[in-house]
Amino acid sequence: MTRPPALDPLDVVPCVANIVAAAWRQLQSSSTSSAAFLLLDFLANAHRGGAVDALLRAPQLESFGRGAAAAHHADLDDVHWPTLTHPGSIVWPGVLAYGASHCSGREVMGAATVGYEVTTEVARLIASAGIDRWHRTALAGNAGAAAAVAMARGFDDQQCAQAVALALTVAGGVGQTMVERSQASGFHRACAAQNGAAAVNFSASGMTAPRGVLSGPSGLIAACGGSLAARSSTGVNQPPGIEESTIRVYPTNGFAQSAVAATVRARERFDGPVTDITVGVNPAVVAQFRAPPANRHWDLLGAVRNAWSTGDPWTVDRHDFTTPTAVLQEDDGLAVGDAQVTVRAGPDQLTVRVDSDFSHPHVEMALALEKWSRQGVMRPDEQCALLREWLASDEVADPRIFSVAGAGDTDRPPRR
């Protein structure tokens, strides 16, 4: 791996340096189990169209973007609920492109950990600054991609901070994309993955970023309409971002995942047909669904009705049912991403609550295996174990470890 020239610590952008230093401190706190779980999900999501093969065989900037966009197909890339970002689709392309053939499993593990951590920490900063009209995954993703690639290429934390700062000079992502549920959200991820890797290349050649890239009067925070809040304990007492990230299991949007899971559990316990279903969610989630759904993927109540009517939460395209009716209800006691479903039939009713981390590997591994199986991954449990073993090793990967059988239509029956 080529290392850039050493940097004077006084030249490192202060605010960014604090974030990167916090990410470095999390290296000993992350587990290969979570990383292998998230990596396999990335591979399953991104494998369509040869995107993963392109990353491994021809690691160009274009292939980084292609991999990120492919991983976002059907909006199923992983989610970090505390910051509402999707680090995996942006972090893993650079990690694999630079690390799969040149780094040990432990080094790849470190690069992914730092990439997730920088993404989530920049996202926390953006949130605390009151920025809400920009696509947070795109803003923070540029930084996370740069951090991951820098780590994979052997940068130290100061050199990594310079690369991250350079990537943040072009960070963006118009928030209207999310308001309209536009497919441009995949383009945002692609640009973040490419920009992050390009920033590392230019930083290695000696290019530096403005010191106030985040905090200056015309820095990113101010330019996006925010104000920098005092943060004296960046990264302290927080689990690593890679440990807090989970996958999206069902073929519907992230806000609907817990509602679908609760519906499935209610259906298993409630005997007989129901007349109506009430879905309780956080008020901020209700606000996301006041307008008619832009597409099937963003139809929360449609996903719930499908799950109840068919008994198969992976089948989301049925529209011929007349019952049950379904309504959304605000519930301040639920966090964003959590859901409480109440089903009724006359005087009888049943309520089931599911929290947003239901799909974490330590909680619902069976659901993850079902998702990957339906995407065409052969023996996903064995595949996950192989990735976990490699990430804990000092060996360079056998490229075959990244081969999954085809990633396809999530509506088809499972293949095992």
H/E series: HHHHEHHHHHHHHEHEHHEEEHH
Structural class given helices, strands, pairing? alpha+beta
Question: Going by CATH, what is the homologous superfamily of the largest domain?
Answer: 2-methylcitrate dehydratase PrpD
Based on the coordinates given, report the CATH architecture of the largest domain.
Orthogonal Bundle
Strand coverage percent: 5-15%
Radius of gyration: 21 Å
Total domains: 2
With strands numbered from the N-terminus, the spatial order across the biggest sheet is 4-3-5-6
Shape verdict: globular
CATH class of the largest domain: Mainly Alpha
Task: Classify the helix fraction into a percent range.
Answer: 40-55%
Average residue-wise pLDDT:
88
The number of E-state strands comes to 6
Q: Catalogue the unreliable spans.
A: 4-11, 406-416
Question: What's this, in brief?
Answer:
The protein has 416 residues and is of the alpha+beta class. The chain contains 17 helices and six strands. The strands form two sheets. Strands 4-3-5-6 form a four-stranded mixed β-sheet. Strands 1-2 form a two-stranded antiparallel sheet.
Q: Would you give an account of this structure?
A:
The chain is of the alpha+beta class and about 425 residues long. The protein folds into two domains: about 240 residues, Orthogonal Bundle (2-methylcitrate dehydratase PrpD), CATH 1.10.4100.10; about 100 residues, 2-Layer Sandwich (60s Ribosomal Protein L30, Chain: A). Helix content is about 50%, strand content about 5%. It is built from 17 helices and six strands. The strands form two sheets. A four-stranded mixed sheet has the order 4-3-5-6. Helix 1 crosses helix 6 and helix 2 crosses helix 4. The chain starts with 13 loop residues before the first helix and ends in a 25-residue tail after the last helix. The C terminus is likely disordered.
